[in-house]
Amino acid sequence: MDLLKNKILSEGVVLSDNVLKVDKFLNHQIDPELMVEIGKEFHSRFKDTEITKVLTLESSGIAPAVMTALNFNVPAVFARKRKSLTFTDDLLSAQVFSYTKQETNMISVSNQFIQPGDNILIIDDFLANGEAAGALINIVEQAKANVSGIGIVIEKSFQSGAAILKEKNYRVESLARIESLSNHTVTFAGDNE
Amino acid sequence: MDLLKNKILSEGVVLSDNVLKVDKFLNHQIDPELMVEIGKEFHSRFKDTEITKVLTLESSGIAPAVMTALNFNVPAVFARKRKSLTFTDDLLSAQVFSYTKQETNMISVSNQFIQPGDNILIIDDFLANGEAAGALINIVEQAKANVSGIGIVIEKSFQSGAAILKEKNYRVESLARIESLSNHTVTFAGDNE
Asked: Could you say which residues bind 5-phospho-alpha-D-ribose 1-diphosphate here (chains A, B) (predicted)?
């Protein structure tokens, strides 16, 4: 997706060989027009698939997930990292380690919102080692729902997540695939568009 | 906003005299079409005002904030509750107590994304005692930017937040104003549409 790649090149900041900062348009400040285009692009890639819900993880996945759900005319659900007084249903939970935050979180979804037979499109902002995606898959499978696909805004292809997910036969569509962040430079992998 | 009020009546759950659970369409599962309409409604209410950025707080404010920012053709920024390895700029921070989570958080925004002279529309999902809105105002004022207005999806008018903000001459627009949650029943206040 050229619009996204150009945005990464113009506004992304390479902090190290494996950390790309995209706080200007995705992770802290959000470019709403870009989110609209990301939603359309995920729809175009998965429109041949049955999708009944979009699932993401708070917080940076919410904007792309909602824009994608809008195109499919289905609800979006975000897994929560923390408890709340209003979070009183039976929960589906899984552990996820965040490299950028250096902590392990238990993420949870109310069992009310993922039902047996649901066809779930998982959306996330980044795919690195596949920790978050793996936890979301775990939750979907606990609910006896199906993972229809996994849509990633930025895949760091030099880390193991994409390969692990594809090996398990999940369909992964990444809008920008980064081959390397070496020398403070973003190098994209061959596009899968 | 009738669409929202009907949604609250049909899908909201009154947990106690001051807690309304709206996990089915706003706080955990998100209705994307409703978010589109909320974005249009905030635009219609604040369109006479100069807005250069929309500011919210993760996580439940993100969807309405992004849809609102889209209508104003400006970026959305969400204050973060936690640190991240990629969160390396100088930060504007303020404390906020969450009643529903029973904890005090330090929320932060990179000083890169709110600049002196910015005209900020603050958007949040709920207004109760005004803790979150107060912390966001504090951050905007630290940055020497202006608060152009405060847009709230659901105001609990029987708590003190709205009155406190209006007393300080902030312009508050709430899309649904709840007068009471007594007897497990939602009673709306007179509409300010």
From this structure: 128-132
Q: Is B104 on the interface with A (CB under 8 A)?
A: no
Say yes or no for a CB contact (<8 Å) between B36 and A70: yes
Per-residue pLDDT reduced to its tens digit, A21-40: 999 999 999 999 999 999 99
Q: Predicted confidence band at A193 (pLDDT cuts at 50, 70, 90)?
A: very low
The interface predicted TM-score of the complex, written ipTM, equals 0.95
> What dotted CATH number matches B2-188?
3.40.50.2020
Q: List pLDDT tens digits, range A46-60.
A: 999 999 999 999 999
Whole-angstrom Cα distance, residue A1 to residue A191? 8
Nearest residue of chain A to residue B30 (CA atoms): A76
DSSP string, A129-149: SSHHHHHHHHHHHHTT-EEEE
Query: A17: burial class by Cβ within 10 Å (0-12, 13-18, 19+)?
Result: exposed
Domain boundaries, chain A: 38-177
Nearest by CB: B32 against A25, A28, A70:
A70
Q: Judge whether A105 is annotated as a binding position.
A: no
